[in-house]
From TrEMBL:
Record bears the keyword Lipid metabolism: yes
Family membership noted in the UniProt record: Belongs to the peptidase S33 family. ABHD4/ABHD5 subfamily.
Protein name in UniProt: (Lyso)-N-acylphosphatidylethanolamine lipase
Alphabetic keyword roster: Hydrolase, Lipid degradation, Lipid metabolism
Organism annotation: Poecilia mexicana
Length: 377
């Protein structure tokens, strides 16, 4: 059922936000013909996101966090005002949530309230995605990755967090791992949800044992024609087709990603979520250029994380959470556990969940994450 917009907490409008939108509008005026072809803008993204965030019941603070290099990161922080606090009680370690490729803070709508009942939860749009700044990214994989990771560290410093429980989904899981390797003292527990970019290209099949044949049925191999199409598309930015579709872009998202509408249909009985996905990704490409620099054909990482997980300190607990029906192979999680040896590494499968575990089975996801948070403090 669609939430009533009247009492909804709207994202805070501030000078930084106004300035960012003014710059965006000034830039778009140079291409006055383009808005009529591509029905999107940062203002429409803001409006759609506000409708999603209206579902939040806990205290919400939404603002741009300005980094040392003047990039801005769109940030949500949630607290539960009703939770009693003792004067002697130390504040609990905050949970920081990092979305995946093409996503934004709005996709956590099923999780934010539940996870912020007992501690502060932060969620932000990655640099180059959603409502955050969209700078240029280098074409070198290592440099692109470093730009993402450095923006997360600058964000942490600007917000003033000493340490955090760091959760990343898909691309966010890859970047969260890279961040934890470089800044281990800031991460109390690393939670990776269906993380992208871990296996080395071409090796997962050789590592599978015969008794995994049943799983192979669930995860069919990609047909040759699909590989050929993806190879051609890899010559372009990953989401270029959405922008090239012009006025048909929103319909294209509805047609090819109807699952997003279904995942949230009890919250919205219209196209709110697919509109949000469209507006997040129909803007000027930035983060996706960084992602393309980091990835190979068919989405393999040029710098697979399995080659670096041994750099995580043994004292850092790691939990890897996979959807049992996801296209991401959970055997990478088992390999991480092998590499880390006696270090705390747990691999969990969520039944009846695909890649977007947090939306497919939100109750199970929230329960697992809440238990991890309680284990920290």
């Amino acid at each position: 059922m669609d939430p009533a917009p009247a009492p909804a907490p709207a994202p805070i409008q501030n000078d930084c936000e106004t300035e960012l939108e003014t710059k965006a509008n000034r830039s778009s005026s140079l291409w006055s013909w383009w808005p009529s072809w591509r029905p999107t803008s940062m203002s429409l993204l803001k409006t759609t996101e506000s409708k999603i965030l209206a579902c939040i019941k806990n205290d919400l603070w939404a603002r741009f966090v300005t980094l040392a290099n003047q990039d801005r990161i769109w940030t949500l922080s949630l607290t539960n005002k009703g939770t009693p606090k003792s004067a002697e009680q130390a504040p609990k370690t905050p949970l920081v949530m990092v979305h995946g490729f093409g996503g934004g803070v709005g996709l956590w709508i099923r999780n934010l309230d539940a996870l912020s009942r007992s501690r502060t939860v932060y969620a932000f749009d990655l640099l180059g995605f959603g409502r955050s700044s969209r700078p240029s990214f280098p074409s070198d994989a290592a440099k692109a990755e470093e730009q993402f990771v450095d923006s997360i560290e600058q964000w942490r410093q600007a917000v003033g967090l000493e340490n955090m429980i760091l959760l990343g989904h898909s691309l966010g899981g890859y970047l969260a791992t890279s961040y934890a390797i470089q800044h281990p003292s800031r991460v109390s527990h690393l939670i990776l949800v269906d993380p992208w970019g871990f296996p080395e290209r071409g090796k997962p099949e050789t590592q599978q044992s015969e008794d995994q044949s049943a799983e192979a049925v669930k995860r069919p191999t990609i047909p040759r024609w699909a590989k050929a199409i993806v190879s051609i598309l890899s010559l372009f930015n990953p989401l270029a087709v959405i922008r090239a579709a012009g006025p048909w872009g929103p319909g294209l998202v509805n047609r090819f990603r109807p699952d997003f509408k279904r995942k949230f249909e009890d919250l919205f009985n219209d196209d709110t979520m697919t509109q949000y996905i469209y507006h997040c990704n129909a803007q000027t490409p930035s983060g996706e250029i960084g992602f393309r620099a980091m990835s190979e054909t068919l989405g393999w990482a040029k710098r697979p994380m399995l080659q670096r997980v041994h750099l995580l300190p043994p004292s850092m607990p790691v939990t890897m959470l996979y959807g049992a029906r996801s296209w991401v192979d959970s055997s990478s999680g088992d390999r991480v556990a092998e590499i880390r040896g006696k270090a705390h590494t747990k691999v969990l499968l969520v039944e009846d969940a695909s890649h977007h575990v947090y939306a497919d089975q939100p109750d199970d996801f929230n329960r697992v994450v809440e238990n991890i948070c309680k284990s920290v403090d």
